[in-house]
Each structure stands twice: as structure tokens, then as C-alpha cells.
Design brief:
Pfam families: DAGK_cat, YegS_C. The chain is α+β, with helices and mostly antiparallel strands. The protein contains 14 helices and 26 strands. The strands form four sheets. Strands 13, 14, 15, 16, 19, 22, 23, 24, 25 and 26 form a ten-stranded antiparallel beta sheet that branches. The chain binds adenosine-5'-triphosphate (ATP).
Length: about 600
Amino acid sequence: MDIQRDDQNLNQILLEETFYVLTKKNCVFKVRLTRQGLHLIKESELNFKEQVIPIRDIVGCRCLRSKKQSKRCVCQSITRSTSLEVVEETSGDLDVNDTSAYLYIYAYLFQDTKAASKKRERTIITLRFRSFDKFEDNNREAQRWRTIIKKLIKGDIVTNSTILEFSSSQKHRESRKLLVLCNPKSGSGRAKELFQDKVAPVLEEAEIPFDMYLTKHSNYAREFVRSNNLFQWTGIITVGGDGIFYEVLNGLFERSDWSEVIKSIPVGVIPGGSGNGLARSIAHYYGEPYLPSPTLPAALAIVRNHYAPMDLVRIETTTQIIFSFLSVGWGLLSDIDIESEKLRILGGQRFTIWSLARLIGLRSYGGKLWYLPAEVPLVDPKENLIFSNNIGSNTDLPTEVNLETKGRARVDSWYSANSRRSAYFSATGSSYQSTAEEAVADGGVNSSPQEKPRMYGPASQIPGLMAPVPSDWKCISGRFVLVHACYQSHLGGDLLFAPDATLNDGRIWLLIVQAGASRSQLLHFLLGLSTGAHATSKSFEGLVQLIPVNAFRIEPDMSEEGYMTVDGELVDYGPIQAEVFPSLCRVMVP
Ligand SMILES: Nc1ncnc2c1ncn2[C@@H]1O[C@H](COP(=O)(O)OP(=O)(O)OP(=O)(O)O)[C@@H](O)[C@H]1O
């Protein structure tokens, strides 16, 4: 019953208007706005067709006016079609003869024709309000639609009384401002361009301002978040790989006000590095198409104002405390990650080549592994694995839809609104801080790098690293090819490590491969990591264990040398322990 009421609520008509397509005789569109989305209902003499643009696919909308046409050159063909150019209503360049108000609605439609070809397509719907003689009246109508659409995108409650409230001249004002920290050296060194070309345009469409800082050196982002007043921003975005996110996260825990910050300021990630495990995992949990445009689900996550709690893992080594969001590694996978650094120039292929090299010169490491098995799952992972809100848009919309209200005689030859080709308007108040400029907003970033900052964060619930392990922990001792823990589904863009993991399942997924496996078995295991087959296929039984745990400790044989990594970053080789803190921070999700 509740569901039915919800459905009715979703389909309640909030706004409705009739528009016309003047190029097609007698083609009338009824456009309705409901909590579910924008309904384009085509009514012609012969048929009736409804297409819905779900609210969750809409990133933003803006009201514009048509631009004054530049004077015709005498040599210009009079038959050349003039495309509509639009400007802000405050522009001195507007066409005063056209009193229409144009509402541009930007959407990224989810298309799920075949499971293999899920994708999002950018579409612009243009509604031309022209029923009144005066621009002010047309604009009031357009602004009313814009305000309500923006409220729905943000997830605000829209009632009949709020609609009335916004039918006056009240305009939507954006209250968000983001801090963007970009590592220009990550991946192939194109993270800044990636942000400017792929993400900034979506933020502009959503009219979300941001301040962007480029990191100048390793640990820059960490120092930045540790020492600046973060409350001037409503969210922090990292652009780069998992390394820059790791810096930001640990910088947050070096603040005495960490608890308030992680509760009130969500973090988001734009994948631009060579290791993008977190971004890939978030797209996976929410059923968002990741390839060929990995930045799009991340950009949508930022504009949608949706946050989800994420587990963090507190790591203790003999020298430091770390807060980790992705992984702890010892053995084969860490060796490949760290030692292939010297082949960086090869891009992603470095991992494949070094995997083969490491299989030929296979190593194992002696030591002890203790773990505390996870109790009954906090949530059923199967229920939670893919949480997709994607309503297939069921649309066959072109990339532009231009509709107008009936009204005054046409004053221009209309069509071709902003499209993929369009230049973007600058978002109000956004700033780019170049590498040449001082990035220090509050003057604190470069202060005393020698001083080791204190790590705050929640207190450990398990005995310290040097204390005996509790009796209910299990122990495996011997030689290991690898022990790798991960708390996300994906360890990297194409490594499906823990197929059942979710953002906040309260679990660490511990992968154990003991010595004794043949090279060919290990080759199959490494190949299986790309699809998750290592965890699901029976052929790996006895070779590979994937155990959900709440905490673990590794004590390597210190007479041997090796690598240990946390979130892909090298840490001191030696005893290490980890415990999960469920839902400790909030991340932006699509
Ligand atoms: N301006 C900079 N110059 C050099 N190194 C930087 C700079 N900014 C950040 N770093 C360091 O680069 C490291 C890797 O960053 P990131 O994860 O963003 O990219 P990546 O390509 O995925 O890296 P990797 O493949 O090494 O994990 C981080 O540990 C960070 O400390």
C-alpha cells in the first residue's frame, strides 16, 4: 500500500505546460514535471507517446535569453540557417526583440539496451517560454520550472506550498561550493585536462562553483586539508588516483576537528590516476557504466548531492597510524604494484609485464597471519551488491529537444540550441588556482614539514600491535605467496577483488594464497582477478581463500625483505594490523 502511495506521490504533477514544435505541424508536447522526472508527452493527431527524463539523470538547468545576432555580412548567403545563440539574462549582448525565456535542461540519459552496452548519453532539452509579451513574465515561468527541477535534483522536499512559494520571483541560489584537489602528475599526467574537459562542464551545467588547487608535490593535498579552514567548502573532490584520495583522507584525520569534518564534509573522487580502485568500486555498487567514460559517473555523483557512508580501516604499523579506504597488501600483488613503478612509461601494461616477471621469479614470504572472522553480515551483501537507481530512460530522444510555448509571433529562426559542440558558461564564483600561484588559502599549508603531525581519529577497539592477539582470533602460520586485504569491490580499474563487497558492509575482505601453488595456477588466479573468478570459481578452491574479517594482523619474518602497501602506498615492512570502522566517513555516490 505504501508503495502505491509512493508511486502516486512520485507521479503527482508539480508543473505542466504545453509546448509546440514549430517545424512539425500540429505536433504538441505536453511537458510535465513530477518527482519522478520530466515527462515529454507527444500528442499528435495520430499518436500519443510519453518519454520520461528521470530526475536522477538531470544534472542541472539554466535560464537564458537569445543573443543579439551579429550583423550580416553582405556576402553571406541569406539561406544560411541561423542557429540560436543564448546568453545570460544579464548580458549586454542579448536580443531585446526576443522576449522569450529559454530553459536549458541538461541530462545524461541512462541507456540499458543490452547489459553489455550500458551507457549515458548527454541530452539537452530546451523549453522556450514565450506566452507573454514581456520577458519578465516569460522568465518568471522559466525560473519557476528551474527552481523546482533544481530542488528535485538536490533531493529537497517539494510540496504544493513550495511550488506556490517559488512561483514568485524567487530564484534558485546554489549553496554548495566544492574544493577540488587535483594531482597533475597522476596517471599519464592528464588529470588537470581531464577535469577541465570532462568534469568542469558538468559542474557548469549544474551551476556548482568550485575552487581548484593543483598539488605541487607529494603530500601537498594532505597538508592542505590538515591546515586549511575546510568549512568554507561543502565537499572535497580529489582528481587523480587512489594516492591523492589517501592523502586527503589522512590529512582529515590529522585535524583535531576530524570528527566534525568527516560528518559534515563529504568527499568525492574523480578517477584520473593509474590506480582508481575507489572510483571503479563506487560505479560498480551503483550500477553506473564506467567505461568508456570513467569520469562521468564520478561527475554525476558530485552534482547529485547523494552521499553514502563508507567504512574505513584503521591501520597500525610499528611507526604510524593510517586511515585506509582501499587495501593492505603483502606479497605478490604489492610486489607487482611497487616494482613495476620503474615501467611507469608503459601505462597499465606495466602490471601485466611485471606479473609475468614475478611469476617467473616467484617468491613467498614467511610469517604469521591472525584474523578475526566477521560475524553475521551487517547487511546481506547480495541485496546490497548493486544498488542501482537507474530507471532505464526508455527514451529514444535525440541529443537535443527543443520545445516552445505558444505565444507571440516568432521573432527569430529558432533551433539548434546548445549542443555537444557548445562552449560552456563559466560557473559563478569558480576559481582555478594555477601552480604558479600560492595555493595556501589560510597560509598554513607549507608550514613546518619536519614536524610529524599527530593522527587523531577513533580509538582502536583491539589490543595494540605489540600486545598478544585475543584468543578468538584465528591464526595461519607458514609461507605465503600473498596476503591482500581489500574493503572495496575493485582494487583497480580492472581488478574485481571482492565481488560481494559493498561500501559499508563492515568487512575487510582478506585474500590469502599460501605457498605451494604452481606458476600456472597462479597465472590463472591473476587472470581471474579481472573478472572476480578467483573468488567464485571452484577451480581455485584450496588455492585461494577469500575471508570476510573485522580485523587482522600480519607478522612477517623479519629476516626476509619485502614490501607492504596501504592503499597502494608503500609503508615500513614489518608487523601491521588493521580493524574496520563501519560507516566512518561519507562519500559522494551517483
Ligand atoms: N604535484 C605532484 N608531484 C609529484 N607527486 C605528486 C604530486 N601530487 C601528488 N603526488 C603524489 O603522487 C602519488 C600518486 O598519485 P595518484 O594516486 O593521484 O596517481 P596515480 O597515477 O594513481 O599514482 P600511482 O600509480 O603511483 O598510484 C601520490 O602518492 C601523491 O603523493
